[in-house]
Every structure is written in structure tokens, then in C-alpha cells.
Amino acid sequence: MSPTHTDNLKTNLSEAGTHLKQAASGTAEAVRGAAAAAGEEIRLGSANLKAGLADGSVAAMSALEEAASAGGEQVDQLMEKGRDLVDSAADLIRERPIASFGVAFAAGWIIAKLARGGDR
Q: Measuring CA to CA, which residue among 40, 16, 36 is closest to residue 28?
């Protein structure tokens, strides 16, 4: 007796079920592999991020130290210019004491007038 259409249908359905089970198993393995690879990539990315942040913070600290040193140099230069200006003024006062007194008196008088003018 030859197989009937029903027998052929059952055989084909059984074969289709076997292939579907294999495909599902293969898909599950692929998903597990992808998840493992993604997890590894995330760990690697996290390590790279931490290393980058650490390098950035070291560079920022170095920049701050340099900024502090540069600020100190600027203050020293300003102090030196201030001392030069005071020395120059002292020399001028020694050379022309009467003119210096007159300029100081006039400046005081102008400042006093301006101060009184603001009260009115």
C-alpha cells in the first residue's frame, strides 16, 4: 500500500517541526552569543571610558597647577612693576619736592571738591 496524503502530510509536518526546533535552537545559541559579545563590548567600553576619564582628570590637574604657577608669575611681575613705579615716584619727589607737594595738594583739593559736590 502506498502512503496516503494524510501520511505524507504527517511526515512533512513532522519534518517541518524538526526543522523549526533546530532553527529555534540555533537562534537561541546566536542570541546567547550576541548577548555575551555585547556584554564584553560593554565591559570594554566601560574600561575605556574609565581610562579616558582618569587621563582627563590628570590633564586637568596639570593644567590647574600650570595656571597657578602662571598666576604667581603674573603677580610677581605686577609687584615688580609696582615697586618700580614707587621708586620712580620717590625719585621724582626727591628731585622736585616743591612741585610734588603742589601736585599732591592740588589732587587733594580736587578730590575734596568732588566729594563735597556729591553731597549736594
A: 36
100: Cβ contacts below 8 Å, ≥ 6 apart = 92, 93
SS3 3: coil
Provide the residue ranges of all domains of the chain, joining segments of one domain with +.
Answer: 5-117
Helix, strand, coil shares of the chain as percentages rounded to 5? 95, 0, 5
User: In angstroms, what CA-CA distances link 39 with 42, 43, 46?
Assistant: 5, 6, 10
pLDDT tens series, the chain, 120 aa: 788 888 888 898 999 999 999 999 999 999 999 999 999 899 998 999 999 999 999 999 999 999 999 999 999 999 999 999 999 989 988 999 898 889 889 999 999 999 887 555
**What DSSP character marks residue 96?**
-
Those residues whose C-beta lies under 8 Å from the C-beta of residue 11, and which sit 6 or more positions away, are 3
